[in-house]
Amino acid sequence: MNQYDIIIIGAGPGGLTAGIYAGRQGTKNLIIDKDLAGGLGREVPEMENYPGFDNISGLELIDKIKAQAIKNCELHEMEEVLEIIKTDKEWRFEVKTNKDTYQSKSIILATGSSHRHLDVKGEEEFKGKGVSYCATCDGFFFAGRDIVMIGGGNSALQEALYLKNLGANVTVVHRRNEFRAQKHLQNQIKEANINTILNATVEEIKGDMLVESIILKDTETSELREIPTNGVFISAGYIPHTKLAKQLGVSLDESGHIITDKNQKTNTDFVYAVGDVCVGLKQWVVACGEGAIAATSAFTDMQN
Fold first, then answer.
1. Is the pLDDT of residue 165 over 80?
2. Which CATH number fits domain 2-114+238-303: 3.50.50.60, 3.30.450.40, 2.102.10.10, 3.40.250.10?
3. pLDDT tens figures, 204-247
4. Fewer CB atoms near the end CB (10 Å): N or C, the chain?
5. CATH class of residue range 117-234
6. Helix (H, G, I), strand (E, B) or coil at 291
7. What residues act catalytically?
């Protein structure tokens, strides 16, 4: 059976950075991801706040971090971890995937999150037929067409700007009376003359073969109105992936995120967590910092 000092589950920015730091400490390490390295980070159209780059896409940055990571540790993409079993042996954890079984002294959970759905009528029906959760994946098909972006955070406004630059006619819909996104993104939305509708929720997505309109409900008056559109892009938050954390008895907060201390330790010995699955700010630079801390903590704890 393959044995490792540290197994990192998830190859997003935090997981890959953990792999870099773990490998440079001279330990034997493995990163496993059920998809391609990068996760949701591959969908980010552009970033202007990652140190060292005035502007870079998520895919480009992931490729750079991945290239550095595989110089320092082993990486298995397209391999899903199904179960982690704690043992009372030197190799404290047995990691079972859909391809193999591994043993490890420490675990770093970098399992990330997935797109939160609106759970409204028509959403599932029109997925891939006008409903999308990824502007960089599907935006090209909407050049010159009307689209609605649902959400009010950084990701929603970043993707709205990206779609506008592709030539789409964009309207941003948010359920609150103001956006949660950073001020500079809100300013860019105004400068780009992107239409916004606040205090509104989506009640239904309508169409025939493809999306044709959405029904919005005013959160203050409960008034309904129908807006014609060719596409609905949804950026309404994320759901943390904590199935494996629960198997290991890791504590979660009320929102379902993993609780860690300043050293990225969970309440379960030799289990650490980083990135979007944790309580805290959802930013690449934070996930990378947490990855460095977790790998260093795991190495230090193994020496004691």
1. yes
2. 3.50.50.60
3. 999 999 999 999 999 999 999 999 999 999 998 889 999 999 99
4. C
5. alpha beta
6. helix
7. 134, 137-138
